[in-house]
Amino acid sequence: xxxxxxxxxxxxxxxxxxxxxxxxxxxxxxxxxxxxxxxxxxxxxxxxxxxxxxxxxxxxxxxxxxxxxxxxxxxxxxxxxxxxxxxxxxxxxxxxxxxxxxxxxxxxxxxxxxxxxxxxxxxxxxxxxxxxxxxxxxxxxxxxxxxxxxxxxxxxxxxxxxxxxxxxxxxxxxxxxxxxxxxxxxxxxxxxxxxxxxxxxxxxxxxxxxxxxxxxxxxxxxxxxxxxxxxxxxxxxxxxxxxxxxxxxxxxxxxxxxxxxxxxxxxxxxxxxxxxxxxxxxxxxxxxxxxxxxxxxxxxxxxxxxxxxxxxxxxxxxxxxxxxxxxxxxxxxxxxxxxxxxxxxxxxxxxxxxxxxxxxxxxxxxxxxxxxxxxxxxxxxxxxxxx
Amino acid sequence: xxxxxxxxxxxxxxxxxxxxxxxxxxxxxxxxxxxxxxxxxxxxxxxxxxxxxxxxxxxxxxxxxxxxxxxxxxxxxxxxxxxxxxxxxxxxxxxxxxxxxxxxxxxxxxxxxxxxxxxxxxxxxxxxxxxxxxxxxxxxxxxxxxxxxxxxxxxxxxxxxxxxxxxxxxxxxxxxxxxxxxxxxxxxxxxxxxxxxxxxxxxxxxxxxxxxxxxxxxxxxxxxxxxxxxxxxxxxxxxxxxxxxxxxxxxxxxxxxxxxxxxxxxxxxxxxxxxxxxxxxxxxxxxxxxxxxxxxxxxxxxxxxxxxxxxxxxxxxxxxxxxxxxxxxxxxxxxxxxxxxxxxxxxxxxxxxxxxxxxxxxxxxxxxxxxxxxxxxxxxxxxxxxx
Lengths: 387, 387
Known about the structure:
Two copies of one chain form a homodimer. Chain A has 387 residues and is of the alpha/beta class. Chain A has two domains: 24-181, Rossmann fold; 191-386, Dehydroquinate synthase-like, alpha domain (Up-down Bundle), CATH 1.20.1090.10. Chain A contains 14 helices and ten strands. In chain A, a hairpin with a 4-residue loop joins strand 8 and strand 9. Chain A is globular. Chain A starts with 10 loop residues before the first strand and ends with a helix. Chains A and B meet through strand 1, strand 2, helix 7 and helix 8 of A and strand 1, strand 2, helix 7 and helix 8 of B. Strand 2 of chain A pairs antiparallel with strand 1 (11-13) of chain B, so a sheet runs across the interface.
């Protein structure tokens, strides 16, 4: 199918209060108190505990005069059962504000817990768009990777362990009240996550920029994210220079502000079922799919390519087919230089699962804003090329 | 004094929910209802009433099942006495949500009324930064010019009629809950206001970009605003093409998102006392001051000039003194082509008042974020050059 969808002319733009800066993790407590909390439910993970960041957060919360319950029964690609356990614990302990500290997993788990404590039921009841009825408890999210964007986004992604799929929940309710980034936390991020989370930010920015729901309000953030990633990804991966890591944290924030409002596209519509089936790393899946999806999208987004080429660091004005080549070349070179995985096979995806994955992607909410209307055959073809 | 101030490394970014699009004025009612309102206090002016937009707003509010009280006892550069009258009327009528529809005057009056109904006292009690204690009633602001940015900003500017000065009130509380722009309303904007309000947006964007509190989050919006103004100002003034007018409305929004978070500088610090003393048009004052202030700022913001030149539509990469020349030239050419006033004298400012105006500007909150620390003599020199 080849027709392009019509671009939307109306726009809505909503972002939480944003706080960004080195050393600002010590404001967690005052943020939670400012939102009216007395007893904090802190969701984080064991890696951050070992790195000392959880202690920093606990100290800040207690110094703000609040009580705190610490919860870390979560795993990468957070599971429905973990979220349900967290919600029970929140209620049992009488908490009244949630803080999520970590990567996408800790933050999405915090969102899932927030959904259940005020809306009840099971997390799969809220799959899709705007299924949440009651307002969530106050929520502060503190990202510690360079990619997820969950700290500003209207998305929560939770794994359904029974059906082995990702549940994509989209609602303005799940955006937090405050997004607080302290780029110092990237110092202890394991090497492999610098690349995989930054390529997640990269795919957020590119899909947001191509989305049919993109507007000038989201485009400026998407392009800024691309400029920061293209300037700092390779250096951050190879040298771990604090300035480059901070740029990636900032890129993640800009990309999050873009995609939360313009939504995403085929990369994420495919990445969700793959992540659900294999429990594979989300950023790695995106890095593999992105070049193929961009190639597929390009014929219907030609007028946006010159700005995209500029965003990717190409400093001479280009147009038409030249812009298309520049975009694909720069992207390929960058992913190679950063050591990103380049095939689905290398991620453990089985070839016989591809048709099922293509089918499942059609049900993901992210496909709705793809600039090019893909059918099952198109999606399968993208998967095969990325295999 | 020549030293540059240090740029801030921490950033905070907060914007209201934003809705933008042609024909969306009919969502005023549902916005007010969504914020929990039952009886709307609608603040607008007689020009918008004659143009039919007030009727559209009233219809939307009534169709949403809400009651409404209409208030239009306001004048350009809204006065303390008007705001106090509005607050009394709001309380007498038992309203519970405020909608401001108009230019900066109607929206700032709506903000002033909101401050008084929940905090009491007189409007001058809230001058300066963060003096408001109690939360305001829900607030929806709908701009109908291409410049003020009041619909997203944390500022309210009210004239003190006794002391003949502008009161600058800055607080995160005065940003509305929802900013709703329907660019169709620009169709009936009188000719002279296209230029004067767009030059207000232009000065917001440039001052926000140079501000010591600017960050990547505000810079992307400042630059986008400049791109839109430089692409559409002259055409919008001369031809009133709907596309160019919409671009200016969008520029105003982007510039507002930038300056509300990065704050402003000397142009506004000087424009406020001038507007207070002469009741002159705010955008015209800015248009006159802007080139002189930019010239004054340039030595301490050299590293930002290449991006600024690009934002102003210059498509070849330039650096150093060349960028400085390009910026000044493009700005001068654009203001001339748009027919903006070019001297304080032409606005009715008296030469003997200049020393007093320079002194008053030192007390304005906008001076705090100027990239170059100006003393009274510097400010007087700028005023004399702009005379």
